[in-house]
Amino acid sequence: MWPVERPDIDAGYTFKICISLVRSHELKRRLTSVRPDIQAAAAEYEVKAEAGHLHLIPVANMVGGCVTKDEMVKVYYAAPRFSDHGLR
Fold this sequence. Notes:
Distance between the termini: 25 Å
Number of strands: 2
Oligomer: single chain
Helix content: 40-55%
Structural class: mainly alpha
Strand content: under 5%
Strand order of the largest sheet: 1-2
């Protein structure tokens, strides 16, 4: 595997943009509550990536015990693209 330049994008900010279009107040509340989990997972990813241990990150079906994997996927596909926010 060859190295790839790491983008200078904050995971917490990116997640905030992704959830900005969620209309359901209840889902948006839950998504907002797991933002620290997203930031912690991003930090763990960086550490594991540096060590070449991405395969050690466990697969999860829930985030923070209150947001399902399916809900996260739907948010991702509904999210505005980075170019819409001057991030690229």
